[in-house]
Amino acid sequence: MPETVSLKLPARLSLIEIDEAAFIAGMNRNAFITRAVEFYMGFDPDLVGMLERYAAMLRLPESLVAQNILIRRFAEVAALAEVRGADAAAFDEFRLDANGLKTGKALFDELKARFTREERARLFDEMAKSEDATGERLRRIEKVLRAAGIPEDEAEALKAAVVWAARNQVKTTSGPEAADVPDPGDGPGGKK
Hints:
The protein has helices at about 15-25, 30-40, 45-60, 60-85, 105-130, 135-150, 150-165; strands at about 95, 100. It is mainly α. Among the domains are: about 15-65; about 105-180, no CATH class. Strands 1-2 form a two-stranded antiparallel sheet. Helix 1 crosses helix 2, helix 3 crosses helix 4 and helix 6 runs antiparallel to helix 7 (about 150-165). The radius of gyration is 26 Å and the shape is elongated. The termini are far apart. The model is unreliable at about 175-190 (pLDDT under 50).
C-alpha cells in the first residue's frame, strides 16, 4: 500500500505554484511531486555535489544550472547531427559495456580524460599553427614524435607538456639550443 507523506513547504514555494507547474506538465499535484522526488533521487550523489557547487559559485538555482547544462549538450548534439548526420550525433555517454550502462563518477572520469586529451590536442594544433618561434618549434616536435614512432598516447602526453612549457615560457634546455629542436630529416648529429 502506498505511503503518505506530509511536508512543510519553504516560504519560496507555494501550493499554487506547484499546482500551476503540475498543470503545465499535465499532471496532478501528487504525480508532479512524486516525479520530482524520483527524478532527484535518481541522481548520483557525486553529481548532486557538483551541481550544488556550480549553483553556489554562479549564485543560481540548481534547476537552472542543470537545465542550461542539458540545453548546451542537446544543442551540441543537434549541431553535430546537422553538420555530420544523425549517426555522428550518437550519445556516446549511453554506450553499454560488460557491466551495463556506465554513469556517475566512472562516466565523469572517463569523459573528462577524453575531453582533456582532445582539448590538449586542439591547443597543440592551435599553437603549432602560429607563425612565431613557438609554432615552428611545436611543428618540428610533432614531426620528431611521428618519425620516432612514439605511441599516440605517449606523444599526446609529451605534446601536452611542451604546450604547458610554451604557455608558461619554460625552457626545456638551457643555452642557445633551447629553441632548436632537430628536424626529423636531420641525421643523428644534426643537419646533414
